[in-house]
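TODO from last week: model D-aminoacyl-tRNA deacylase.
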Amino acid sequence: MIVVVQKSLEASVTIDGSVKGSIGVGFVILVGIEAEDSQDDIDWLSRKIVNLRLFEDEAGVMNLSLIDVEGDILLISQFTLHASTKKGNRPSYIKAARPEIAIPLYEKFIAQLESDLGKPIQTGEFGADMKVALVNDGPVTIIIDSKNKQ
């Protein structure tokens, strides 16, 4: 799994003109799932995300986690994170998991994030045409690949 974690002041996802999810302070997370991903990837990423120290403490140092600031998560599925651009100008998405594999993993990731964060999270809709609005705080953007844990 690949995630792009963006620290937000506010964010929302709109589908067919209606807001599906919105948050204030927290993380907008774009997630790309590949066929080889498993519950181990989900567990590791979820723990990593909720404990990332990207929020400022009283001294202005990024020393507080999402849990510490009681922040929220807006999770968006994005198969294009697995784009290969090695050949030509049309990206290949061959590494991205097919929906029959990706959707159950996406749903498990939602459940794990909610469990680790201790509250419900906001989401987009798998496979939908989504419009994501974000005020990126910092800006702070972190890319994490569960296949590169070392």
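Done. The mean pLDDT is 95.
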